[in-house]
Amino acid sequence: MTAQPAPAALVVDDERLMREQIIGRLKRAWPELVIVGEAGNGREALAMAQSLAPDIVFLDINMPEMDGLKTARALAGRVHIVFVTAYDQHAIRAFEHGAVDYLVKPVEPERLGVTCQRLRERLQRKPDAMGELLEQLSQRLGKAGDKTHDYLHWIQASVGANIRMIPTSDILFFRAEDKYTRVQTAGFEALIRKPIKELLDELDPDEFWQIHRATVVRVDAIAQVSRNLSGKQVVHLKGSDERLEVSRSFNHLFKQM
Amino acid sequence: MPSNADAPEAGASDAARNLTQSGREAPGTKQTLRDFGRLIAELWWRFFDWLAVVSWKTLGLIYFLGLILAAMLNRPNPFLLFVVGSAIIKIVAGGKRRADLLAGQATQRADAEQLERAVLEARMEALQAQIEPHFLFNTLGSIDQLIQTDPPRASRMQQSLIRYLRSAMPQLRDGSRPTLGQQVELSRAYLEIMAMRMEERLQWTVNVPEGLKSAVFPSMMLQTLVENAIRHGLEPRATGGKVDIGAEIAHGQLVVSVLDDGVGFLPKSDAGVGLANIRERLKALYKDRAELVITVPPTGGTCATIKLPYEIAPAAT
Q1: Shortest Cα distance from B61 to chain A (angstroms)?
Q2: A18, B138: Cβ pair inside 8 Å?
Q3: Architecture of the domain defined by A8-146
Q4: What confidence score (pLDDT) does residue B106 get?
Q5: Chain A residue numbers touching B293 (CB-CB < 8 A)
Q6: Are A120 and A33 in contact (CB under 8 A)?
Q7: Cα distance between residue B162 and residue A187, in whole Å
């Protein structure tokens, strides 16, 4: 027998209609290709790739549980991957210079024909490890999220039976009070158990300043700083009449320009 | 501003009437006298306004010049009368009048601020009204597929998409104040589409009393909450989940909530521009009479609630 075994493909997308569409069009564009399986998320895809050993994986980038990028990282070098994405400038730019193929949803039959032609050639070689491309993709798709990921954006505070999520941008200040920390917004206050010390580690230092052992204030909420009769600096807030004393060790924050 | 600023205009029209009535002499003379009286009153109020806002320093300078004039003319009595009279008027009535005038200016400033806020709100609304290309292309792709496999469903999905686009595109709206009913219909169309795409991964309910549908509700806010619930709550989970839209009146306020049983909020997850945008818009529209509250219900997931003043939209004509 001179004929090679028919190539096998796995189609991964979280929407069934999208999978059906690609499979239907693949059948017309490449009748010999065998679709060995369909997966609805990255985790399923990995399991199927293990058990079914496909040559090609059509992989949606935006998926639940384990997204396309993570899945691709796990599969890289073992199978030929064709990325499938809905309209996404960031992703497309990353692909433009790479050898790895990508399809834009909805997949056009003509474009799919080109991909199949390329795949026939790619199957002669070893699957690409895609190291650089995956790095670029995760950078572009990670957006600014990575940079701000380490800081708190929300404070969880119990209000009745519910836990209320207070955006940090609403908070005027935190203040240590006995065993609790008071969270003050323009509209209400809440008590949380997390001590000031721990909060300081998790808050964006550009957004919140400690001005006293017991007080952390949001910089944008400061209306002005004045001196009281005993010469201490006092912070006035926007949206609250409460005054916050600045202890000496934090005076440098408000030195005159 | 003089409270009778329209007096000269009225005088002019009276004078015109005077001309047409010149045939009869008696009413003409009376009219002239009345006009003269109006002119005196007008001049008096102008003087009064000026006296109210002029600084004591300027007034002192004028007294000084008046003193020189009086000395030159050798007529001290009318001068003294003017000094004492104007000083008394300024002390007694000037304060109130001045406050009135300043209040008028403040109102004008407030109007300007209001306008600024309205412009800001319009800009942010446009931002929020942007339709996700992802959503549009994926939906069109699904319709494309359904046309071949299930044409009746394709047609239903397309109709939902049309309804969605009609109310989501700002340029297709009729310019009247958006109602909760319209906003719910928009999100309903969106949920219908998403449910056809996500299949068993999305269940949804809408529980909005008929009577609340005519309440005023800012555009695209509910939709942003629904999109958030699906994108951040349900989509990250393979099994999906449930989205419930509800509305009620509580303590005189309209309370609209979107509840999901998805993966829930993490304190470190980025707030996203959508929620920040809603907060800013609520502030611009209602100052501190409205708020967006995010809670984690005991059952898990996320509940986003918008509270704002209950107001019935004027009936469309």
Answers
A1: 39
A2: yes
A3: 3-Layer(aba) Sandwich (3.40)
A4: 82
A5: 164
A6: no
A7: 41
What SS3 state is found at A78?
coil
Q: Is A47 on the interface with B (CB under 8 A)?
A: no
Report the distance separating Cα A206 and Cα B52, nearest Å.
50
Number of residue pairs across A and B with CB atoms under 8 Å? 112
pTM of the model: 0.73
> CATH homologous superfamily of domain B130-309?
Histidine kinase-like ATPase, C-terminal domain (3.30.565.10)
Give the mean model confidence (pLDDT) for residues B238-253. 94
Query: Where in chain A are all domains bearing CATH 3.40.50.2300?
Result: 8-146
Exposure on the CB side of residue A5, measured as CA atoms within 13 A: 6
- In chain B, what residues touch A62 (CB-CB under 8 Å)? 134
Indicate yes or no: CB of A14 within 8 angstroms of CB of B293.
no
Average pLDDT, chain B: 83
CATH number of A154-254: 2.40.50.1020
Quick one: which of B176, B188, B252, B251 has its CA closest to B214?
B176
Closest chain A C-alpha to B286 CA, distance in angstroms:
14
How far apart, in Å, are the Cα atoms of A43 and each of A81, A251, B232?
16, 54, 19
Residue-wise pLDDT tens digits, B123-133: 777 777 778 88
Task: Please judge whether B268 and A152 are an interchain contact, meaning their C-beta atoms are less than 8 angstroms apart.
Answer: yes
Q: CB of A153 within 8 A of CB of B268?
A: yes
CA of A161: which chain B residue's CA is closest? B298
Work out the average pLDDT over A24-38. Answer: 94
Q: What is the pLDDT of residue B153?
A: 95
pLDDT tens for B259-298 read 999 988 777 776 567 888 899 899 888 988 999 999 998 8
Q: Quick one: closest CA in A to B233, which residue?
A: A64
Q: Which of residues 291-310 of B touch A (CB under 8 A)?
A: 291, 293-298, 302-303
Instruction: Check A164 against B293: CB less than 8 A apart.
Output: yes
Domain with CATH 2.40.50.1020 in chain A: 154-254
pLDDT in tens, B78-117: 788 888 888 888 777 777 777 777 888 888 888 887 777 7
Helices then strands, each counted (H, E), chain B = 10, 5
Q: Which of A64, A105, A154 sits opposite B238 (nearest CB)?
A: A64
Say which amino acid occupies A75. L
d(CA B229, CA B259): 8
Peptide bond preceding A106 in cis form (omega within 30 of 0): yes
Spatial distance between the Cα atoms of B97 and B44, rounded to a whole number of angstroms: 14
> Which pLDDT does position B83 carry in this prediction?
82
Q: Is some CB atom of chain B closer than 8 A to the CB atom of A159?
A: yes
**Best residue in A61, A165, A192 for a mutation probing chain B (most B CBs within 10 Å):** A165
